[in-house]
Predict the 3D structure of the following.
Amino acid sequence: AFTTTSHEYDTIDQGAVVEYEFTFTNVGERPLTIQDVQGSCGCTIASYSFLDIAPSEQSAIKARFDSKGKQGPQFTTITVYSNANPKGEVLSLKGVVRGPDGSVSPTAVAQ
């Protein structure tokens, strides 16, 4: 079970990187295997242990959001697929990216 499934970061400047660890505990009776993690866009990636997590053990999914080329409100997700939840558990990152002109209005920004 995840301690939290969402993280809200402050307003950041365009180009800044947000990193956050979503911690969890294997509350099952069998080893937990993370089979895959998928970001909702190329700007959000996740890393995780490829080792099984024993019952009652803790681990984490490390999320990284790169705000390059982004502006305005942002909401990205990471879906975690495991032997305990083959349909996936959704983790989210939410915040606001300030553009080079100081604006936080969502606009099309050249990358």
In short: Strands lie at 6-13, 17-25, 34-39, 44-47, 58-66, 72-82, 89-98. The chain has no helices and seven strands. The two ends are 37 Å apart (CA to CA). The CA atoms of residues 42 and 63 lie 12 Å apart.
